[in-house]
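Researcher: Good morning. I'm working through a list of sequences from a screen, and I'd like to move beyond sequence-only analysis. For each chain I'm collecting a predicted structure so we can compare shapes side by side. This is the next one on the list. No need for commentary yet; just the structure.
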Amino acid sequence: MTMQFMRKTILPCAIICAFLTGGSGLSRAAGSEFSGLPPAAAAHWTADNGNGTYSNPLFYEEFEDPDILRVGDDYYLAGTTMHMNPAVQIMHSKDLVNWELAGYCTNRLDLGPAFRLEGGNIYGQGIWAPCLRYYRGTFYILCNVNGAGLMVYRSKSINGPWEWNQLPGRHDMSVLFDDDGKIYLISGAGSPYPIEELAPDLKSFVPGVRHQLVGKMGEGHHLYKINGKYVDVSAIPGGPVDQMVAIADSIDGPWKVERMVQGESLGVTAAAPQRAQPDDRGLWLHQGGIVDTPSGEWWSVIMADHGSAGRMVSLVPITWDNGFPLIGLPGNLRKAPNTWLKPNTGRMQNPKPAFVHDDNFDHGMLNPHWQWNHAPDDSKWSLTEKPGVLRLHALPATNFWTARNSLCQRPPGPESIMTVELDTTGLTPGDTAGLALLSTPYAGIAVVKTAEGTELQRFQGVGGGRRGGAVTPTNPPALGPANPPSHLWLRVACNFDTDEAVFSWSADGNAFTPLGKPFTMIFQLTTFQGVRPALFNYNSSGQLGGYADFDNYVVVEPRARGIERAIPVGKIITLTSGADGSSVSADTRNHLLVNLAADSTSAGSPQTRFQVVDLGLGRVALKAANGRFVSADQEKAVLKDLAGQAPGEAESFQWVNLLRGDTLLMSLVNHCYLASQPNAPGALTITATGPRPARKGGECFRWKTVE
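Model: Good morning. Structure tokens for this chain:
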């Protein structure tokens, strides 16, 4: 069967709500606060806040090694897919905030048996770090396949079809089509970085021609020519690492190197958020491309690790400073806002989720967000043998790690609940079919067919070592009831704040029973990806097996749009520090904003109450009980009498929600944040450059309305 994919329509809200209340144990999103948003944007993660601002991450699910391109008023984004098929994901947008899938470079990345899980694997290898370019009417995507070579894809349309040729491999390369027709390719992970020339048809390297960039950079190159200057952006390898930028007047240098991002975590912790300690260094923004808008703005789509959910991208503004493109805003360079104004692209799009993962398999084509773990055997899966279901025929495998034709998706964060119907009447002895999380360790819930009957199991195991090692024995499974119903529902609920997943099952699709202990999810370098929910069926007897029918795969995102994304405009609120519980208060004698110890007798006084005045575009002013406004005065937060005038820039704060109840207030004067000194009551400042990863530095606040 040829691999076909469809654009999936959204399931009705009634179905989504039924799954939210079906025994998941997770809180339901408060959709009523976002009645002005389309239903899909309230049910699925959407970066667009619907008020002229957006919030990061751009996608609350993994999107790796982004490279971005503008052609006219269209924006395109390409990302790594490694061992997954289809390969090399391509997105399209008009406003840099709302995206949709444009397609993939190839439906099938198959360069030998290991690419098909036959006698080996390419976990953690496959196709990496795409470079997306457009030149003289043709789109080009170049990306390296570890151990195989550099793939050069080309198409007249971003939607394909794509032709390709192969070159010798180059690590994390980038290509520049220069003004004089020369084509440069930079690659490597250590100085000096070779800069080679490609032939005009991109089918060979120009022999004997070589330039180089000398300087302390990184890997994951993005090479540009901007206003006559050569610019290379690259990332220092690792998790808590920065991104560098180099500029030169000539491709031969000399190159000047500057730090482009510095210690920016956007409040993302290295440990699971609920286990983070105050000294957590976090996971920093690094590795991403840059792009301009017709209005002259510059932006970056840049990656950061997000624990077991994988690596995600954020949209951040760029400020040119002394000839260098630096991430950040004037007054707070090399740092990035979590919430900011949408780019001025000249085009407006309504809030729309980039990824809706549901699939009822009714349309004869798969939801295009599915990807196969390695290249599939297309003769062993079908949407037509029994219309309306996905039928997976069992191929021989030792365990889930080696099972072919496992169909995967990325799980949305910060929480997601994946549920699927399963019909096991077609299983034969040796078959194991169900729902799992692909990673190492991996875990799943499955129906196992034996000669004596069927058994429900929650299994767990460990895959091979980094990029192809041996598979270690699996742990003893947790057993469910013997001979469960042949028609049942399987579910996994993932909480990426705790890095825990709970597997459960149901006989009627309503009441779910957990099976086994919660599974601890991790990010690791074997698959080099976050966990992947997967539908699978394999036979452990070494023979071809029977078949399993999957139906109604539904993904619920309980916190895609919760109350914490709302701004309490017009409300009277109190603010307390997330670091020490101290209360923000108006010092009416000295006209200062101060914090009071949590046990202060004045903590509940009228001086701790502030009205949130809506200034539009997600910006607010805070009005104290005595009528004065919180205002930025140098590095201090003072209380100012506006004498009836409207709040100005000094009184304007961008309301920034970080999820998990944390809020920041960014001054429009210096783009820094209101902050208290933890465990030291006194005057508040406007000097914090961003949230600490564990959010215990005094810059994060909790708010509640006053009854």
